[in-house]
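In response to the reviewer comment on reproducibility (Comment 2.3), we provide here a single inverse folding case reported in full, input and output, so that an independent group could reproduce the run without further information from us. The structure tokens appear first.
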């Protein structure tokens, strides 16, 4: 028991140390290394979890996937990338910011000597980064709670972890070594909470990360590398400011709130997640 618990602690330490931009961990100036370290975290997590649970590691991490699941992931991700761009563009306009995707506009904001491969590496980073978050802070945590506390209502699991998801973002920027000096607004936290509920239901309902990863990856892919330029001052928003621009407004609050409530209602009236998982 102690050994199994120790391996879990090791996995989460690996995730925290390697999954995020190396300039935060090592204070170097090569953020394009991020995808290598994050991918290394993915490999180590899978190796350790396979050693810990040789017969159930895929199910525990929500990656017991079939070919059709991978096809669904690709299709949904592409569609959500397009939808995310449209949504972020309009929400930025509402907040009086101009949104410029990094991939198409990096030459206007970076040094002319910035290599294109560094920009591409920044985008590649989101694949292992979001994957690690979905398997550890998503499937392993949610499905583990469901298995361990069988009497715990799935709605309570989805809502409580969504609250943690929202507050985790606030803590990231409040205590970040980058000293953003910007905290997330209450509207932003509520919108992130609703997104967390939707994401948690997708995992609890399917027992897989197919849809939650597609949602997470597609939005991060468009949102985080983009430039948000203040139309009045010309200043570029930092990361927590971007969250407030996109999530800290009433249209986003209403949209995410509707999706969260609809997902909870659907989970309630349809067959329970536990039944779906047990049928596999």
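Designed residues, in position order:
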């Amino acid at each position: 028991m102690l050994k199994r618990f120790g391996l879990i602690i090791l996995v989460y330490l690996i995730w925290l140390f390697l999954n995020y931009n190396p300039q935060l961990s090592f204070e170097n100036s090569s953020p394009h290394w991020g995808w290598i370290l994050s991918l290394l975290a993915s490999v180590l997590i899978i190796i350790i979890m396979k050693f810990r649970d040789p017969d159930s590691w895929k199910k525990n991490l929500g990656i017991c996937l079939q070919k059709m699941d991978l096809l669904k992931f690709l299709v949904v991700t592409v569609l959500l990338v397009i939808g995310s761009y449209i949504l972020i563009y309009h929400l930025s306009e509402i907040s009086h910011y101009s949104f410029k995707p990094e991939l198409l506009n990096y030459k206007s904001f970076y040094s002319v000597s910035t290599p294109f491969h560094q920009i591409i590496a920044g985008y590649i980073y989101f694949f292992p980064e979001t994957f690690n978050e979905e398997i550890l802070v998503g499937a392993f945590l949610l499905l583990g709670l469901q298995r361990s506390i069988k009497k715990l209502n799935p709605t309570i699991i989805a809502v409580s972890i969504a609250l943690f998801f929202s507050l985790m973002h606030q803590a990231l920027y409040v205590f970040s070594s980058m000293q953003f000096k910007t905290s997330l607004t209450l509207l932003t936290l509520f919108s992130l909470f609703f997104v967390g509920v939707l994401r948690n239901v997708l995992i609890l309902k399917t027992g897989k990360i197919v849809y939650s990863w597609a949602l997470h990856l597609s939005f991060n892919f468009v949102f985080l590398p983009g430039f948000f330029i203040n139309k009045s001052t010309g200043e570029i928003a930092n990361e927590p400011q971007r969250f407030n621009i996109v999530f800290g407004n009433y249209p986003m609050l209403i949209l995410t709130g509707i999706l969260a409530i609809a997902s909870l209602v659907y989970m309630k009236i349809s067959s329970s997640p536990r039944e779906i998982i047990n049928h596999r």
